[in-house]
Amino acid sequence: MLGGMTALEDRAAVRRLLDRFGFGPRRGDLDRGFAETLDRLLAPAAPVAAPDLPAPERPAGNQEAKKRANAARADQEERFAGWWLDRMVAEPTATERLTWFWHGHFATSEQKVRSPRAMLAQNRTFRAHALGSFTDLAGALVVDPAMLLWLDGNDNTAAAPNENLAREFMELFALGIGHYSEGDVREAAKALTGWRATREQDAARFTDKRHDRSAVTLFGRTGPLDAPGFVAAVLAHPESAGFVVGRLWFRLVSSSPPPADVLDRLTAAYGPGRDVAATLRAIAAEPAFRDSATTLVKQPVEWLVGLLRAVDVRPSALPDKTRKRVRIGLAGMGQVPLRPPSVGGWPAAAAWLTTSAGAARLTLARAVVAGADLTAVGGDPVEDARVLLGVDSWSDRTRSALEQVRGDPKQLVAIAACAPEYVVSG
Amino acid sequence: MDSVTRRRFLTLTGVAGAGALAAGATRVDWGTLMTAASDTPLDPGAGVLVVVTLYGGNDGLNTVVPAGDAVYQDLRSDLAYRPEEVLDLGEGLGLNPGMTGFKGLWDQRRLAVVRGVGYPEPDRSHFRSMAIWQTATPGSASTTGWLGRWLDTLDGDPLHALSVEPVAPPLFAGEKGGAASFPVNGLTLPGGNPGKAFKALGHAQEGEDPWRARAAKAIADLHRGVDTFAEPAAGEDRSAPEDEQSTKGASAGGGSALGRQLAMVANLIEAGVPTRAYSVSLGGFDTHADERGTQQRLLTELDGALTPFADRMRGTDRGRNVVVLVYSEFGRRVRANAGQGTDHGTAGPVFLLGEPVAGGFHGEQPGLADLDGDDLKATTDFRDVYATLLGRVLAADPARVLDGHRGNVDHLIRA
């Protein structure tokens, strides 16, 4: 990767930093230097006021009540997702980008959880630890109510172990496949027994008599093990740090894994404190981070939020009809926040570059841009659109394509947002 | 059939009519798809494969149920179906009570059940095991899907394979590109200068970053599809909300609204769209808890979507060449967990439907007295099934696609 590498110019490196640790540049962001931009991104975020979502009522048996409960839940989910999208557009630090990252990493779907309140509580946990210690985050998630509802934690008892959460925690959240055995999965399930969550209560409860007190053999060591002990054992496994750091790299830098020496430096920065902010700082310092070849296909949400930031449109300010089209557009591109397709999270790279996603992307771009103030696009429209979107440069192909709509700023910016140079972060 | 007749034909046929119109989504595309199919229509003698992926790991033992087996009754306890509950297939096996349509197909010898399908050294991770089934490369990682590699052997036209979901499944990923994907909601593109500008973004740019080149190619493929199928939409787009997804336990991926997906496929086949392989999916089979009700509901949905599809396909020349493959990434543990669910297991049954299929049982039922740990031992390699479909339905050389794999399931497809 480093042989024959072409390093980005400073301004492009700042743009990349904003693309990867945030949701892309807003007007004026590219005028700051690299170090200042990094400091701003890694600074603590201002506290946020989340929407108030009352606990769902348990519907009485009749069909009418069920319908009402479903409608109330759908309404809450919509408010929550809309609020979060708005946060992503507004936030100047890396906090929302990392909150989004953790949502995809500990992928939990409202489809099965059926409690926007529990999903929001989980979202708060992601935000609170977004740039903090993975130790704290993983410890919170293993007893998170939405997670327990999602991965059948409620059914995991001493009398009847359920492996689902234990397996996915090791495979997808903290260790990676190949570093544990089927025996470890069965044993680990015992350590997580006894935790239960409901859709109404904000914290999971531990019931001693449902917990399996027998000795657990995990990674060849035998002894009593509870949920915090399980998390500690998995995170202490020599392969865990490289796995977690590798996942950050995969989503924030490149779908090609980091070279071994880079990974070593990053895991050193992650360190015994499992410090996410320090890891990001180390990523930004890597020469590979400035390699022009380290491109990344934007996920649909990242693409949309970046576009909203560039054209300075807050989703909360959009008319109802447009907000609805935003939801439909994201569904058409295959990515609805709060509804990852599986516990493995969303796909990456080529999966977003399908023919049908391309059509949905254009429709969505046109809907979003329709209400934007584009007076900045005027004198040299194609060039102005490039500056507005924060694209380093247009290819000849794209410049000549965009020339065909130079007289119509809205069409121009919408189509420019579908250009390969914008869809794929350089 | 001239274009107007086709249009009328498509408007009037199909379950999709009501569903699609209710969503307000696909009217333009239904109309425009027809024009398309008249340019390069599907050869009425060509085989067509429809792949149905059940995401989450469907419990094979409660799908094709050995209800008369004492070991099954013992290990499954409350989760077990009693012999009088299942739909008898003979040989001590019966279908899940939700699959009454499949039972009808079975009785007419139009349903094949390949028993005990899996692969050596089974992987119990959803993602690894699904990747193994979709890439057909157990024991090594591959970045291409089995039908993607089949696409690679053709002329590069993505329309040979079509997904009706927004995200293309890995089984369609090829080295040279991949399949087209048309979600149920269909496609609409602008006309005029904006349409020209968007189309021009699809041109290749020399020396471009590979991902950007791929983004450009997707735009080109999109227009190629739309040029083949469609006139550009005049004025506004007509995208509309998808139906609210049915809420079901789904921690391992997969689609919903299978009936709508299949109705779209049926319309495309009957219209003569030149696609040879389709992909649809149903999710929610990861039944670690309270399995019985959930799985039976999903199998009922599967049955309710596929039975009318099979019957409808029987009514046309092109439809009579259609073969449907139904599979999942693994079966589940033989012994129930006490949450009335099952954990990840190994081999399971594969279904094949359609007029070319030789109905009845194929392959051996894995014995419950002869387990590998707590799991079934596979008796048929899934690549044998794929090889048979590649050779007999898609008229391809299986060895080229399956890395030299030579096995087959004899007598699965009629001569």
UniProtKB/TrEMBL annotation, chain A:
Entry-linked Pfam families: DUF1800 (PF08811)
Source organism, top-level taxon: Bacteria
Region described as Disordered: 47-73
Name used for this protein in its record: Uncharacterized protein
Native species: Actinokineospora spheciospongiae
Automatic annotation (TrEMBL), chain B:
InterPro entries referenced in this protein's UniProt entry, alphabetically: DUF1501, TAT_signal
Renumbered residue ranges of the record's region Disordered: 232-256
PANTHER family according to UniProt: BLL7424 PROTEIN, DUF1501 DOMAIN-CONTAINING PROTEIN
Protein name: DUF1501 domain-containing protein
Organism: Actinokineospora spheciospongiae
Lineage: Bacteria, Bacillati, Actinomycetota, Actinomycetes, Pseudonocardiales
